[in-house]
Write a structure and sequence with these properties.
The protein is 46% helix and 18% strand. By secondary structure, the protein is of the alpha+beta class. The chain has one domain.
């Protein structure tokens, strides 16, 4: 298993353990393609958001549009759990 790395989340800007998120779902489009660095909170939030917005999972253009809309316009609240782990670890 890969060791978790710390870095800056591309959505909320928090410095925390980072997940590598595939812009186009790797389960449909494979592992190749653009990725983004997200904290666990933002990563989970995006997947929940995209489940509600996706009408055609096979449409790469729709997936990209959902991603960029979420990245640029949807607010995400950094959870107290994440902040608590940062300050008390």
């Amino acid at each position: 298993m890969k060791e978790a790395k710390k870095g800056k989340c591309e959505k909320c800007g928090i410095f925390f353990y980072i997940h590598e998120h595939h812009i186009l779902p790797k389960s449909i489009f494979g592992k190749k393609g653009q990725t983004a660095k997200l904290c666990p909170n933002c990563h989970t939030h995006f997947h929940e958001y995209s489940k509600k917005k996706t009408t055609n999972p096979q449409d790469a253009n729709e997936a990209r549009k959902i991603w960029y809309t979420w990245l640029k316009t949807v607010s995400v609240v950094v959870t107290m759990l994440v902040l608590g782990i940062m300050f008390f670890s």
